[in-house]
Amino acid sequence: MKQSVGMKIGGGFGVALGFLLVIGAVSYRSTAGLIENAARRSQAYQGIAHLQNFLGLIRDAESGQRGYLLAGEERYLDPYRTAVQQVDKENATIRQVMADSPNQLHRLDGLEPLLKDKLSEFDEAITLRREKGLEAALVLVHNDRGKKITDDIRKILDDMVQEEHRLLEERNSRVESSARNATAVILYGIPVAFIILGIVAVLLTRNISRPLKEVTGFAERLARGDLTLSLTVNHRRDEIGALRQAFGRLADNLRAQIGEITEGTAVLLAAVSEVAATTSQLAASTTESAAAVTQTSATAREVKQTAQVTSQKAQYVSDNA
């Protein structure tokens, strides 16, 4: 498959970007896990606090009821009434905080009828004290039924507190693990990312920048008329390979054309030499011909002069005759 320079550059940056995305995803997951586990740990703390507050409300209600039973004054019922009003609200809050814990919700389901019975007992004792006096109310209070309900309530609340402590330890462990993972990603992931980016940069430099620089240098020397260089054979199929082949063919063509011009120049020089020799011979022949013409002209003048002399002598003889 032919790979262009753009594909190689895109592939290199794609590898680097992919690794950065992996690091980002791992970092996000670790951070999200840390936040989630921290929230769950906080939820466990809230559960423990609400359970202790719930148990405190039961105690406040019981203390207010006993104070009223002993003193018979309505003002002693203020803590009782406040605690009773907050019990249902606290119960709903605990159910909301522990919504992700089926075991705790099951315990709350068992706790609600006990609370109803205990509050009913409180109301009954207060009514007896108000209507029939202290002794009638104390008979109900000293009944084992009320004590058993209280013990059952405390046992369920204690079990729930222990469960929350167990969940707290488990979530603390998860928080520490998530924190270690996030720290490891930051401490090791970022240096590894820089190393991979460096490797990608080196590979791109060796694969693209250096060959391109070599071809550019060859083109510059070729432009200055230096045809002594030649590019090594390269089987690259990208743009740089095509550029190398093009400049190689260009250099070969220039060398071939210069060779042809040199041969033509040699032939032309030989022809010029022959023409020069022929011209020299022709010039020599012309010189000889000119000399012969000059000599012939001189002879003709001498013949003319002789003829004139002869004519004169003939005239003289004629005259004499």
Task: Tell me what you see in this structure.
The protein has 321 residues and is mostly helical. The protein has 6 helices and no strands. The chain has helices at residues 5-71, 78-97, 102-132, 134-141, 144-223, 239-320. The longest helix is centred in the C-terminal third of the chain and has 82 residues, at 239-320. The protein is rod-shaped. The N and C termini lie far apart (128 Å). The model has no long low-confidence stretch (mean pLDDT 76).
Identify the notable features of this structure and list them briefly.
single chain; 321 residues; mainly alpha; 6 helices; 90% helix; 0% strand
Q: What is the oligomeric state here?
A: single chain
- What series of H and E elements makes up the topology? HHHHHH
Count of separate DSSP helical elements: 6
**Contiguous runs where pLDDT drops below 50 for at least 5 residues:** none
End-to-end gap: 128 Å
Radius of gyration: 62 Å
Shape label: rod-shaped
Summarize the structure.
With 321 residues, the chain is mainly α. It contains 6 helices and no strands.
Layout of secondary structure:
Layout: H1 5-71, H2 78-97, H3 102-132, H4 134-141, H5 144-223, H6 239-320
Helix pairs in contact: 1-2, 1-3, 1-5, 3-4, 3-5, 5-6
